[in-house]
Amino acid sequence: xxxxxxxxxxxxxxxxxxxxxxxxxxxxxxxxxxxxxxxxxxxxxxxxxxxxxxxxxxxxxxxxxxxxxxxxxxxxxxxxxxxxxxxxxxxxxxxxxxxxxxxxxxxxxxxxxxxxxxxxxxxxxxxxxxxxxxxxxxxxxxxxxxxxxxxxxxxxxxxxxxxxxxxxxxxxxxxxxxxxxxxxxxxxxxxxxxxxxxx
Length: 199
Hints:
Layout: E1 2-7, H1 13-24, E2 29-33, H2 62-73, E3 78-84, E4 89-97, E5 102-106, H3 114-117, E6 122-126, H4 130-143, H5 149-168, E7 177-179, H6 184-198
Parallel strand pairs: 1-5, 1-6, 2-5, 6-7
Antiparallel strand pairs: 3-4
Helix pairs in contact: 1-6, 4-5
């Protein structure tokens, strides 16, 4: 079962998937993240965003991601690319991902890209107010990715918000379920009950 979990940057997608993974257990599920499929941008990255629009579909290799999901669906292991956010380069090495009964696919743009979308059995959209998404992204990028608050804010206003409005928000209509701040825990339990029957 391939479960796609989408929503804006900082919406809580990864937390939703992580909570389910803890409940289901790593023996029964695995996670494939969109972030692994960024195209190498090291040649034009200016150390704090700027010229590279990481929120546009063209920044990612969705054809490869879609092919990998097909392979997982057919029971084949895949070699997941490793993207280094500090240098914005794709490493030469990769990580083997062995398919499990449940595969969670996590990413902001996965519902907007046919190679990925067409291979999802279920589609969950995590909806979250813009102010909260920004504050979470600000914390993540400054603490985990060495960014400056000014750079994060400028990138959000010039790239993240416009791309969200154009490519992410409209795909909420394609979801079979919508999770928000008020029903988050309830939806985690609901999806766990669904998944539990499958495994």
